[in-house]
Amino acid sequence: MGTHNQVAVIGGGLTGKASAVAAARAGFSTLHVAPDVAPDRRTTALMGPSVDYMIETGLIGDPASLGTPLTRIRIIDATERFLRGPEVAFAASEFGYATFGWNFPNIALGESFARAGAAFESLAHKATTLVSAHRREDVWHLALGDGSVATVDLLIGADGKNSGVRKAAGIQVRERKFDQAALVCDLQLGRGLDGESVEFHYANGPFTLVPAGRTRANLVWIDRLETLEQARRDPEIFKAALNEKSSHLFGEIEPVTPSFVFPLSTLSVSVAGRDGAVLVGEAAHAFPPIGAQGLNLGLRDVAGLDACLRAANPGAYGWADTVARRYGADRSPDLMRTGSFVDGLFGTLISPHLPAQVLRGAGLWGLKTFPGLRRRAVEFGLGR
Prior knowledge:
By secondary structure, the chain is of the alpha+beta class. It has helices at residues 14-25, 48-56, 106-117, 164-168, 225-233, 235-245, 294-311, 319-350, 354-369, 371-382; strands at 3-10, 30-33, 43-47, 68-70, 72-77, 88-91, 101-105, 123-126, 130-136, 139-144, 149-157, 173-188, 196-202, 205-211, 216-224, 254-255, 260-269, 273-274, 277-279, 285-286. A hairpin with a 4-residue loop joins β10 and β11.
């Protein structure tokens, strides 16, 4: 018959780990199904509200012990178009903040989340995968990759763009693929960023340097796949491209880790929760890494799920359905708003059409000129 738990979380990424901790903290017997995988050596910029949530729920301690503070954001229009926008800069102190957020190594976050989960006896872990899931009489029946079976009341999908939970729940998905891809790696700069994240806007996507301490930086370079593959094929060509793309503003740049390239797409769902199943993170949404929204939105998913679980009555009939419906309704406005924002931001940048370029340029002038618009943009970017 296998084991029965009130909640199962499928997926071993950061949103999966955080969701499992949230369920256990709320008092539910929780099964976390996640295979052992290679360490994620990327970094993630998390804004203030995400950091606050992680601290409040014990996922991390002092952020200074794990990450690098982000105190300024700078946008440079390097498109060389006729209608170019001005350079725009934001300082956290301008808006009354010590930092906008922190840039964390994903490995450090994962280890901290795992330590938080280890404090709960009600949280069990299986280092395997989900093979299949079907629901019968309000109970989810799971077949796992290690040959075991399990039943749960509430099924949480944190299993990425190809989510098996999403398919099992019959939740419709919309996906759009781009010609662009993203290249990520770590860099050594001749001159450090000193807490400033710098985003150069080019016609095929941004070239972003995020401070990683002292003279280190994390690179996210969005461009056409063939351009990125050609650039990184030869170390000297790659180094020259990095220096050119950064406008030689930071001295000589040297890559210090292997580069990794992944294709870009947007993904959205019709609803993020129903029939005793909920979706968090990239199981529910995905978009290009622009505007620092990806994991920040995923952690807002977890915070929303946390609230629904703490308000639930597991002794009531159909409690898992109630949680899923409430979660889906509560998350819908944020998912729609953020998805539209990122689509618009990326779309107007890569669009060859003059009206879109005029709109983008006007937006940058507005962000440079009007204090109210600047504050609204910052608050939106922070997820407040």
